[in-house]
Design goal:
With 148 residues, this protein is mainly alpha-helical. Helix content is 82%, strand content 0%. The chain has 5 helices and no strands. The chain is elongated, with a radius of gyration of 16 Å.
Length: 148
Protein backbone atom coordinates (compact mmCIF):
# COMPACT_ATOMS: atom_id res chain seq x y z
CA UNK A 1 0.00 0.00 0.00
CA UNK A 2 2.89 2.38 0.61
CA UNK A 3 3.71 2.08 -3.08
CA UNK A 4 0.18 3.20 -3.91
CA UNK A 5 0.59 6.19 -1.58
CA UNK A 6 3.93 7.02 -3.21
CA UNK A 7 2.42 6.88 -6.70
CA UNK A 8 -0.57 9.02 -5.75
CA UNK A 9 1.48 11.61 -3.87
CA UNK A 10 3.99 11.79 -6.74
CA UNK A 11 1.09 12.44 -9.14
CA UNK A 12 -0.17 15.32 -7.00
CA UNK A 13 3.33 16.77 -6.67
CA UNK A 14 3.87 16.52 -10.42
CA UNK A 15 0.63 18.36 -11.19
CA UNK A 16 1.56 21.00 -8.61
CA UNK A 17 4.90 21.52 -10.36
CA UNK A 18 2.98 21.83 -13.64
CA UNK A 19 0.91 24.60 -12.05
CA UNK A 20 4.00 26.23 -10.57
CA UNK A 21 5.33 26.64 -14.11
CA UNK A 22 2.05 26.96 -16.00
CA UNK A 23 0.24 29.63 -14.01
CA UNK A 24 2.92 32.33 -14.42
CA UNK A 25 3.42 31.28 -18.04
CA UNK A 26 -0.23 31.90 -18.85
CA UNK A 27 -0.30 34.95 -16.59
CA UNK A 28 2.41 36.69 -18.58
CA UNK A 29 0.17 36.54 -21.67
CA UNK A 30 -3.01 37.82 -20.00
CA UNK A 31 -4.02 41.39 -20.71
CA UNK A 32 -5.94 41.97 -17.47
CA UNK A 33 -3.45 42.94 -14.74
CA UNK A 34 -5.54 41.60 -11.84
CA UNK A 35 -5.79 38.20 -13.55
CA UNK A 36 -2.09 38.32 -14.31
CA UNK A 37 -1.34 38.99 -10.64
CA UNK A 38 -3.55 36.09 -9.53
CA UNK A 39 -1.78 33.72 -11.92
CA UNK A 40 1.69 34.72 -10.73
CA UNK A 41 0.67 34.27 -7.08
CA UNK A 42 -1.03 30.96 -7.80
CA UNK A 43 2.14 29.62 -9.44
CA UNK A 44 4.02 30.42 -6.23
CA UNK A 45 1.32 28.74 -4.15
CA UNK A 46 1.55 25.56 -6.24
CA UNK A 47 5.31 25.43 -5.75
CA UNK A 48 4.89 25.82 -2.00
CA UNK A 49 2.24 23.07 -1.93
CA UNK A 50 4.61 20.72 -3.78
CA UNK A 51 7.40 21.41 -1.29
CA UNK A 52 5.01 20.87 1.65
CA UNK A 53 3.97 17.47 0.27
CA UNK A 54 7.55 16.45 -0.46
CA UNK A 55 8.50 17.33 3.12
CA UNK A 56 5.47 15.59 4.66
CA UNK A 57 6.11 12.45 2.66
CA UNK A 58 9.76 12.42 3.67
CA UNK A 59 8.84 12.92 7.34
CA UNK A 60 6.23 10.15 7.25
CA UNK A 61 8.25 7.55 5.35
CA UNK A 62 11.91 8.53 5.67
CA UNK A 63 12.08 8.49 1.87
CA UNK A 64 12.71 11.40 -0.46
CA UNK A 65 10.02 12.01 -3.05
CA UNK A 66 10.90 14.67 -5.54
CA UNK A 67 9.47 14.88 -8.99
CA UNK A 68 9.21 17.47 -11.71
CA UNK A 69 6.12 18.22 -13.71
CA UNK A 70 4.44 15.90 -16.17
CA UNK A 71 5.03 15.53 -19.89
CA UNK A 72 1.39 16.36 -20.46
CA UNK A 73 1.83 19.54 -18.42
CA UNK A 74 4.84 20.57 -20.50
CA UNK A 75 2.89 19.97 -23.72
CA UNK A 76 -0.03 21.91 -22.26
CA UNK A 77 2.24 24.91 -21.54
CA UNK A 78 3.65 24.82 -25.08
CA UNK A 79 0.10 24.71 -26.47
CA UNK A 80 -0.80 27.74 -24.33
CA UNK A 81 2.23 29.61 -25.68
CA UNK A 82 1.21 28.74 -29.24
CA UNK A 83 -2.33 30.00 -28.59
CA UNK A 84 -0.94 33.24 -27.17
CA UNK A 85 1.45 33.77 -30.09
CA UNK A 86 -1.41 33.22 -32.54
CA UNK A 87 -3.34 36.02 -30.89
CA UNK A 88 -5.46 33.95 -28.53
CA UNK A 89 -7.09 36.33 -26.10
CA UNK A 90 -7.64 36.00 -22.38
CA UNK A 91 -10.63 33.68 -22.88
CA UNK A 92 -8.58 31.16 -24.85
CA UNK A 93 -5.75 31.27 -22.30
CA UNK A 94 -8.18 30.90 -19.41
CA UNK A 95 -9.69 27.83 -21.10
CA UNK A 96 -6.20 26.34 -21.19
CA UNK A 97 -5.69 27.18 -17.51
CA UNK A 98 -8.99 25.57 -16.57
CA UNK A 99 -7.93 22.36 -18.28
CA UNK A 100 -4.81 22.34 -16.09
CA UNK A 101 -6.98 22.92 -13.04
CA UNK A 102 -9.10 19.92 -14.00
CA UNK A 103 -5.94 17.79 -13.89
CA UNK A 104 -5.09 19.13 -10.43
CA UNK A 105 -8.59 18.41 -9.12
CA UNK A 106 -8.38 14.86 -10.48
CA UNK A 107 -4.98 14.16 -8.88
CA UNK A 108 -6.19 15.34 -5.47
CA UNK A 109 -9.45 13.40 -5.78
CA UNK A 110 -7.66 10.16 -6.66
CA UNK A 111 -5.17 10.56 -3.80
CA UNK A 112 -7.89 11.29 -1.26
CA UNK A 113 -10.09 8.42 -2.44
CA UNK A 114 -7.30 5.96 -1.66
CA UNK A 115 -7.15 4.36 1.76
CA UNK A 116 -3.36 4.10 1.40
CA UNK A 117 -2.93 7.87 1.82
CA UNK A 118 -3.05 8.44 5.56
CA UNK A 119 -2.01 10.65 8.45
CA UNK A 120 -0.31 13.98 7.95
CA UNK A 121 -0.19 13.52 4.18
CA UNK A 122 -3.97 13.02 3.99
CA UNK A 123 -4.57 16.06 6.20
CA UNK A 124 -2.27 18.19 4.07
CA UNK A 125 -3.93 17.01 0.86
CA UNK A 126 -7.37 17.83 2.27
CA UNK A 127 -6.27 21.32 3.26
CA UNK A 128 -4.62 21.97 -0.10
CA UNK A 129 -7.58 20.53 -2.01
CA UNK A 130 -9.83 23.23 -0.58
CA UNK A 131 -7.60 25.87 -2.15
CA UNK A 132 -7.26 23.92 -5.42
CA UNK A 133 -11.06 23.73 -5.75
CA UNK A 134 -11.44 27.45 -5.04
CA UNK A 135 -8.71 28.27 -7.54
CA UNK A 136 -10.40 26.12 -10.19
CA UNK A 137 -13.68 27.92 -9.60
CA UNK A 138 -11.97 31.31 -9.83
CA UNK A 139 -10.26 30.41 -13.11
CA UNK A 140 -13.58 29.13 -14.47
CA UNK A 141 -15.33 32.36 -13.42
CA UNK A 142 -12.57 34.40 -15.08
CA UNK A 143 -12.99 32.35 -18.24
CA UNK A 144 -16.76 32.76 -18.18
CA UNK A 145 -16.42 36.54 -17.68
CA UNK A 146 -14.36 36.80 -20.87
CA UNK A 147 -16.73 34.78 -23.07
CA UNK A 148 -17.84 36.65 -26.15
Amino acid sequence: MADDQSTLVKAVIAVLHDGEKGFPDIGEHLKDTSKKSFFIQEGQTRGEYARQLESAYSSATGESIETGGTGIGAAHRVWGDVKASLGGGDHTLLETAEQGEDAAKKAYKEALESSSVTGQIRTLLQTQQTHIMASHDKVKAMRDSTAS
